[in-house]
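hey can u run this one w/ iron/sulfur cluster bound, need the structure tokens asap thx
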Amino acid sequence: MKNKYWFFLASHIFVSDKKDRLLLYDTQLGKRLFVVESEPIQLVRRIYEDENLGSVELSERDFSVAVIRDFINDVVASGMGQLVDAQQQPIKPVVLLPILSLNFDVERFKDKENADAILSKNISKYLLDINIILNGSCQQECIHCGDYCKQFFCCCKNEHTQSLPKGFLTDLLRQISYFPVQTINLTGGNIYQYEDLGIFETLNDNGKKIFNFYVHYQNYQENSVVDRQNIHLMINYPVNMGKLKEVHLLTQEKKTKYHLIIENEEQYNELELALSKIGIEDFEVHPFYNGDNLCFFEESVFLSEEDILANPISMREIFRNQKLNANSFGSLYILPDGDIKANLNSAVIGNLKQDRIVDVINYEMMQNTAWRRVRSDEPCLNCVYQYLCPPISNYERVLNRPNLCHIHKT
Ligand code: SF4
Ligand code: SF4
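ok here u go:
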């Protein structure tokens, strides 16, 4: 073959390059192409060399190598790239490569002297939701109380903790009244034992904030403040059918959402049946790891290759996964003693008593206890799905594993 060709990948193809393996991923159609032979891997790496500006010239020698020829044919046939005759297009194509380049990248400026000033600009927009635990008292005796809340937002009793002082709460709501954050999730203990619930009406007079009250169904009772907001009913196993029916009757005209906590398939089947008997078909399911149900988690929570690739993953999502943890980013947790965390499983980053929320956000952006935790440990670090996979969740933290997938067993 005498002709020369230009070869390049389409701009919507994400390349995940790991040591001796490479994945070409079509962010629009979800198609993928794995490359394990060294010659095509080197070819793709050449495309990404700065001086090549996204395309490479192929010589006759390149085409004489069967693995390169096959690779190029696969890429072109799948619409992931193009081969252009250099005689017809003598000027080398310049292709914009999908490389994440952020003007605003905390890691790039966090050690600079004026880091605080840079970050403080518009800092309130980073806060996406606030999760407040109002009190710790509750008369129920759920076996796994105290562990649920480490895996998903749920009530949690602690008889030794005080209730969140009214002054702390008032001050917090005032501070965020002009923040863009809209969602405020609230739970206890038994929130009905919190004396100052009325505050959520008086301090939301412009009605801009959305309050979600997370209540165990056994604790539910009619309340003029809570009932005007969104009610989230937590249901664990075994279910008290009489109480569930009663609560359903009391809440069916209200904005109510049901949450099932399940430890295995049998519990799921029983709870689903219980809900369907009273006409509830719409609910959210929260698998709960009790230390003894790994098999259930392996079957229902661990990701397979098919799960990861089930739907196209956009370039935006992939870039986002490179820089922040979408499960944690923007969330703050307020404990009854005023302590503030970026995730219930991570370290305390402030206290309402002495810290302003903007300073706490600033601190988290810099110190990264949770918001920017990405898949940067083995085995994810060297896995081609590193940034295609959903971000690290509380389940990884609680199971004390870097990954919950069937692709790399740890
Ligand atoms: S109802 Fe909630 S707070 Fe009360 S014991 Fe059960 S899990 Fe704990
Ligand atoms: S090892 Fe990590 S990145 Fe790879 S598939 Fe598993 S969870 Fe995803």
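The longest helix spans residues 265-277. anyway lmk if its weird
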